Amino acid sequence: MTHASFDLTLIGIGTGNPDHLTEQGARAIRQADLILIPRKGADKADLADLREQIIARVCDRPARIAYFDIPKRRADDGYLRGVEDWHDAIAARWHETIAAADPAPARVALLIWGDPSLYDSSPRIAARLDPRPRVRVVPGITALQALTAAHAIPVNDIGAPFAVTTGRRLREEGWPAGIDTIAVMLDGDCSFRAIDPEGVEIWWGAFLGMEEEILLHGPLQDMAERIVETRARARARHGWIMDIYLMRRRRRG
C-alpha cells in the first residue's frame, strides 16, 4: 500500500523535562496533522505517556495521534546487519501507520528523545520510506547537554577536543587515541569497567531532566561499582533507564 507525499518533522524533545521543548518544537507539534508515538512494551509505557503529556501541554486542541509498536532488534547476523534490518522494520511500521491514516496527513511528526541529530537514527529511517517524505529536523536538548548542565561542567577541557562514542566501541576499541575527554552514550553494559581507571574522573547521569534524575561523580576507580549498582536498582524500579556519562583523563605531562 502506498501513501501520498507528506512532510515529516523530527522534533527533539530533550531528555524528559517538558521544559526542554523549544518554541520551534512546540509550533511543529501544533502544525502536525498526525503525530506518531512508538510503543516499547508495558515496562516502558511512561515514555509514551511523556510524549502524550508534551503534546497535550502545547496543543490548544486534541492532537491526532497514531501509535506503532517498535520491532525487536536481532543480533544473530552481527551488529551492523542487525541494525540495518531493524531500521528497515521500523520504517515499515512508520509506513503502515501513516498509510492507514484517513484522511491522509500532509504533515507528520515524530517526537524524538533528545535530539534527532546526535546518535539517533530517525533521519536514516526516514530515508527508507517510499515515497520519501520531505524531512525537517527540529533540534532539541541533547543528553550530553543535559549531563554537563546537571553537573555544572563544560564538556571540554581548556583548548582540548573531546569525543562522543558508544559503550560498544569503548569496549571493543578502548579509549580513543589523542583524546582526554570522552562522552559515552548507548551503554547498557557499563563499559567504563573495561578501561584502566587510573587518573580518570567520571560524571554519570540517568533520567536527566526528570524528577527521577540521578547524578554521580568522582574518580572512576571509586565510582565504577557504585554506578553499576545504582543503575541496576534504578532500571529494576522503573523498568527502563536512559543514562550517559563523561570521562576525563588527567593530561600526562
UniProtKB/TrEMBL annotation:
Assigned EC number: 2.1.1.152
Keyword Methyltransferase: yes
Ranges of residues in domain Tetrapyrrole methylase: 8-223
Gene Ontology process terms (BP): cobalamin biosynthetic process; methylation
Pathway: Cofactor biosynthesis; adenosylcobalamin biosynthesis
MF-aspect GO terms: precorrin-6A synthase (deacetylating) activity
Keywords: Cobalamin biosynthesis, Methyltransferase, S-adenosyl-L-methionine, Transferase
Catalyses which reaction(s): precorrin-5 + S-adenosyl-L-methionine + H2O = precorrin-6A + acetate + S-adenosyl-L-homocysteine + 2 H(+)
Signal peptide boundaries: none
Protein's UniProt name: Precorrin-6A synthase [deacetylating]
Organism: Jhaorihella thermophila
Organismal lineage: Bacteria, Pseudomonadati, Pseudomonadota, Alphaproteobacteria, Rhodobacterales
